[in-house]
Amino acid sequence: MPALLRQLSGLGGCTNPIRLDGHRTEHHLDRDTGEIGRILHHLDSTELPAGHLLVRCNNRRVTRCAACAETYRRDTFHLITAGLRGGKGTPEDVATHPRVFATFTAPSFGPVHNRPTGPAGTVRRCRCGIRHDQEDDALGTPLNPDRYDYESAVLWNAHAGLLWRRFSIYLRREVARRAGLTQRAFREHARLSFAKVAEYQKRGAVHFHAVIRIDGPDGGDTPPPAWATVELLADAIEAATPKAQVAGPVIDGRAYTFVFGDELDVRPIRGADFSGGQELTDRAVAAYIAKYATKGAETATGALDRPIRLIAEVAQLDISEHARRLVRTAWALGARKDLEHLRLRAWAHMLGFRGHFSTKSRRYSTTFGALRDARAAWRRAQAAAADSSPAETTLVLAHWVYAGTGLTPAEEWLTATITPAPGTEGEPTHG
Q: Which branch of life, at top level (predicted)?
């Protein structure tokens, strides 16, 4: 039992670990000749308490594994924070660079039930005549489902990633124009850095939250030019957003063109309290973005967080009729030869969106890989400190194959008894 507890505790609370069969052997390695000598240690998976080697699933979705999603959320938080105030290899001077927090929405595909608020924050009646509660399941669903443009909604999600890339091109042009520079000359004076995350609105449409920053020509390591201001950046974003367009397919004689919605929100990141409604802090922006990094279409569907193999499965899912129609529309469009490149059936559970949920430009800050490597190095250092055996030069040979996923009922119970509260695992979160 103690050995099983140690094995499960090493998962850090992961509830859906990957089970591996195989072995791991450590050999003595002669430093002078390079010859492989005696076996120092042999680990066979069948000798482990769980009968397999268990490794974390590392799934980012909170609906699939809360513990691994929490690690992903914390990594996202620190990645965003590093680009706002420095740290983890990013200079602290980035805190003085012009930066904004922008939200880009999808256009309307038809009127939906909503919860409008007045200037004083009072909740008004929806167009249906009802003053909806914040948790009302009707929010985001169409007022008239038969007139809602489900095809456009799915296809917009499928093209949202390309639309963002098109926007980033126009944004560079707009910033350069305001600085009186050509695009070629702009690269010699400044660089735009960003980090963004995708979020599903209740109606099932993706929108983007992004931190956008003006740096010097070499990124965060160089100061931005004197003409770079928050006001110039915000004005350029507002000008570039409506210009970004993506030509879509022609279906039954209808030519689709995709643009962002009219509800663009651009706010400077300065230093007051985010919840105060006027200005944003570094920490609040990072926390807000990180919150959505662990969610997917289940925000809109309520339950669908994995691919579907047969459309008949949708009838058995505990999701709204609106979400069901979005999934079925994606599945039907996915059967078209001219839309094969969108892989809509593979991404029907995501309502057509197949982009990454969190992305950043190369110079924004550190990377997820660097954060994972730092965490692995910390674990190795902890293990080495606890190992009192004589130092040896060893060669490790391992062979592992996939054997399944998940825990047995007994392992689930034991894991629940030893899992620490989120954020108390004892691993480093700053560097």
A: Bacteria
